[in-house]
Amino acid sequence: MATVSAKQNSGMSALSLVYCGMFATLMMIGANITLFVPFLVVGGVPITLQPFFSVLAGLILGSRLGAISMVVYMAVGLAGAPVFAKFQGGFAQILSPTFGFVISFILVAYIAGKIVEKNGSLRSYVISGLVTMVVSYLIGTNWMYFAYKFWVAAPDVFTYKVAWMWMVPPLPKDIILSVLAGIFGHRMYKVLKVRRGH
Question: From the DSSP assignment, how many helices (H) and strands (E) are in the chain?
């Protein structure tokens, strides 16, 4: 069985790099899954799989490698590759109202990994998915609000309450994906016998 190993020093094994690259790639696909599955657009809101894969990265790879895989994803996008939602890319994306969610995925993977590193029960896996969903919403929604207010010049009717109301449509799917990520992550970890890189 394959294992992800983390060296005691600052280096990373070749297999660790492969796992990080794999999850970065899954994030790229998940950001634009509607290209392959068009019916995953509900009420004009595209259902991305980024929350699912970011949680899964932390659950399977652990806090350190999971977060690194999300940093790789973000770096590739900022370097210009069209890997963000709607095939966006480039350093200018840092000013995008939704870029806060990209940043949050790093913390999501780290926190998810930390939770299950301390307690490997199925309950902890599911809880980690739900907790990190809240973290993602807090960072992403606040970034979106301040982006619209300070550099996108949103009209006065756009309030903090409106920003949170925009998050209501994707909330049900994110709750479902968070729970599924916990269940799937627990099963995959036991099957793969992955030794997490802390």
Answer: 7, 2
* Closest of 11, 51, 25 to residue 197, by C-alpha: 11
pLDDT, tens digit, for every residue of 32-84?
A: 887 766 656 554 556 688 999 999 999 999 999 999 999 999 999 999 999 99
Calculate the alpha carbon distances from 96 to 102, 109, 158, 170, 189 in Å: 10, 22, 16, 19, 35
- For 194, the 3-state DSSP assignment is coil
| 159-170 burial: b if 16+ Cβ within 10 Å, else e | eeeebeeeeeeb
Domain containing 163 equals 14-192
Q: Is 41 helix (H, G, I), strand (E, B) or coil?
A: strand
Q: What DSSP designation does 24 have?
A: H
Q: Is 197 inside a domain boundary?
A: no
Cα separation, 182 vs 125, in Å, equals: 4
Burial of 92 (0-12, 13-18, 19+ CB in 10 A): exposed
Find the angle CA(63)-CA(174)-CA(47) to the nearest 5 degrees.
110
- pTM for the model stands at 0.85
Phi and psi (nearest 5°) for 25?
Answer: -65, -40
Q: What is the number of domains present in the chain?
A: 1
Q: How many CB atoms within 10 Å of residue 65?
A: 28
CATH code of 109's domain: 1.10.1760.20
In a domain, 158, yes or no: yes
